[in-house]
UniProtKB/TrEMBL annotation:
SUPFAM superfamilies found in the cross-reference section: D-aminoacid aminotransferase-like PLP-dependent enzymes
The organism of origin for this protein: Micromonospora cathayae
NCBIfam families for this protein: ilvE_II (TIGR01123), PRK13357.1 (NF009897)
Gene3D superfamilies, A to Z: 3.30.470.10, D-amino Acid Aminotransferase, subunit A, domain 2 (3.20.10.10)
Alphabetically ordered keywords of this record: Amino-acid biosynthesis, Aminotransferase, Branched-chain amino acid biosynthesis, Pyridoxal phosphate, Transferase
GO molecular function, one term: branched-chain-amino-acid transaminase activity
Entry-linked PROSITE patterns: AA_TRANSFER_CLASS_4
Entry protein name: Branched-chain-amino-acid aminotransferase
Amino acid sequence: MSGGDKLEFEIRRNPAPVAVADRAALLASPGFGRVFTDHMVTIRYAEGKGWYDARVEARAPIPMDPASAALHYAQEIFEGLKAYRTVDGGVTLFRPEANAARFVASAERLAMPALPPEVFLDSLHRLIEIDEEWVPSGADGSLYLRPFMFASEVFLGVRPAQEYLYVLIASPVGSYFAGGVQPVKVWVSPDYTRAAPGGTGAAKCGGNYAASLVAQAEAIEHGCDQVVFLDAVERRFVDELGGMNVFFVYDDDTLVTPPLTGTILPGITRESVLTLASEAGLTVAERPVTFADWQADAESGRLREVFACGTAAVITPIGHVRFPDGEFAIGAGEPGRLTMGLRQQLVDIQRGTAADPYGWVRRVL
Ligand SMILES: *Cc1c(COP(=O)(O)O)cnc(C)c1O
């Protein structure tokens, strides 16, 4: 397939979908990432041939040769976005073009072929169409979409693979915060970093997560919910959490987030928050924040609120910060007014209960 060509999807309906009553039971309390829909999309790539064999088919295990390159050298990237049920029974996506573009950027960093954005978007539409019944209704649920791609070539040599498999699966999810939004406690890792200059920090690749897990486990051991990473060079500047970007709100209504210098994942939620905040008249700045300033400004009261953001939890207030030498609170450790206001604004746009002046919402069904 070349450039702007359209790839036709062959549809093979699952002959044994989950029964209606069983699906209803699963949708009643899906949790996160454990329940999956009846179908998946697969598209193959081979050097010299391009993208081919696009299918919507029954979700099933993927047969894999033990010498598949991804299992050895981790050429793998992914995306994460949600489909929302609208109040009138339709289905929408939030800024899916941004995910399509980031998938291309991640592919380029991992020396993988770019999946054309129109094919990426088509795959989302095809899967949502066939698995529409799996999109939860109600104000909290959504259908989490997980596009990913990995090196499928059977070869142990170290070089970019010549064959890839793109897959899209979907998982209905409930409210991230059962029982209301709770501030989290974060652990500032003294030992581990997430991404170094020149590395893969800006790519959404599984390898970044693999490298972050031991730090996340350390956070849990220290009674925290999430880990915060400092920069890999000076260990002074705040980068981000394991899977969320971070924002600081000061008493002069300034909103600050670390700049995208290559070691931070360019979050779509992050970008949306920057837009909403500047439209609301806040002063927004992308500039480095040191951990020392974080602590000093929290203790002086100049720093009012801190929050993390990403697709899964939208906006999560950070209430406490723990590090090897101590701990401090942000304000009274409660969710901040500005944090919760931005969260509501964003959720309302995503759910279609507020106007969408930025053209972020895409109607699928
Ligand atoms: C996906 C991700 C985010 C959040 O990105 P969104 O597009 O807002 O979901 C932040 N940090 C990391 C490391 C991520 O992988």
